[in-house]
TrEMBL record:
Name used for this protein in its record: Ribosomal RNA small subunit methyltransferase A
Enzyme class, UniProt record, top EC level: transferase
GO molecular function: 16S rRNA (adenine(1518)-N(6)/adenine(1519)-N(6))-dimethyltransferase activity
Locations listed in the record: Cytoplasm
Organism lineage: Bacteria, Pseudomonadati, Pseudomonadota, Alphaproteobacteria, Hyphomicrobiales
Length: 276
């Protein structure tokens, strides 16, 4: 078997040797290009001294890049048991630096695993649960998040929703939540052909870092308002926010009841939440 520059076998050979046919139900679109996985790992910034969480390592392309670039503690969470022997071989190649957790990332408490140590999340997320995972990490403990940055691959459309600002078609609950808690950016796009098998759409690597100061507001109330407002995004706010006080609530905070959800700034959403 040909060896890659990290001294481990080429990813395509690893996958073939283990008969790891990609499963759609697990959102398995693998990256075999170690230059690309190295680019993603580099874009996460310094890795040494951090616990790096990677969700869905699969055959380990990104995992290998993170380790090759000096990460001294990588914790991966993988649901597919077929990947475990592959990950064990990577762990052997980098003794004491890779911990493999078998399980569903939706049920794993990353904050508990970080145990107060500085952490980053770097992952090519399974698309079927990517948004839910992000929401879990954003809302786990907004006062004191366990992560210092998250560098995550999503479908491009999800990336656009994360970074969306008022007036954009992509602006919705996710944009308000991410905008309230983080500074978020799309770092670069990745075309479908970079993956095996290729997905139908372009992907984007998004980076989120927590805001040091953010508008005072209670998470549950903010979610309440955005859920109602964007639940009927084509309607005027006087109608969509009726169950929360409608026109009276809007006038109290000086918002024209004839406006629609997608025109409201973060400040205005927080003002509404605070007035509930
Ligand atoms: N990181 C690899 C890469 O870039 O080639 C694989 C990325 S692939 C898009 C997503 C990975 O997440 C797959 O390995 C899949 O088995 C795993 N996965 C899917 N659902 C998961 C879940 N709920 N918890 C943990 N891993 C999951």
């Amino acid at each position: 078997m040909a060896l890659a520059h990290d001294g481990l076998p080429a990813l395509r050979d690893v996958v073939a040797a283990h008969g790891l046919a990609p499963k759609k139900a697990l959102g398995q679109n693998f990256l075999f290009d170690l230059n690309l996985t190295a680019k993603i790992a580099r874009s996460a910034g310094p890795l040494e001294g951090f616990t790096i969480f990677e969700i869905g390592p699969g055959p380990g392309g990104l995992t290998r890049a993170l380790l090759a670039q000096g990460a001294d503690r990588v914790v991966v969470i993988e649901r597919d048991p077929r990947c475990l022997p592959i990950l064990a071989a990577i762990s052997e190649h980098y003794p004491g630096r890779l911990e493999v957790v078998e399980g569903d990332a939706l049920k794993v408490d990353l904050a508990a695993l970080a145990d107060g140590a500085p952490a980053k999340v770097v992952a090519n997320l399974p698309y079927n649960v990517g948004t839910q995972l992000l929401i879990n990490w954003l809302t786990a403990n907004p006062e004191n998040p366990f992560w210092q940055s998250m560098t995550l691959m999503f479908q491009k459309e999800v990336g656009q929703r994360i970074i969306a600002t008022p007036g954009s078609n992509h602006y919705g609950r996710l944009g308000v939540l991410a905008g309230w808690l983080t500074m978020a950016d799309i770092l670069f796009d990745v075309p479908p052909q970079a993956f095996t098998p290729p997905p139908k759409v372009t992907s984007s690597v998004v980076q989120l870092v927590p805001r040091t100061t953010r508008l005072p507001c209670e998470l549950s109330k903010l979610e309440h308002v955005t859920q109602a407002a964007f639940g009927q995004r084509r309607k005027m706010l006087r109608q969509s926010l009726k169950p929360l006080g409608g026109e009276a609530l809007l006038t109290k905070v000086g918002i024209d009841p004839a406006r629609r959800a997608e025109t409201l700034s973060l400040e205005e959403f927080c003002a509404l939440a605070n007035a509930l």
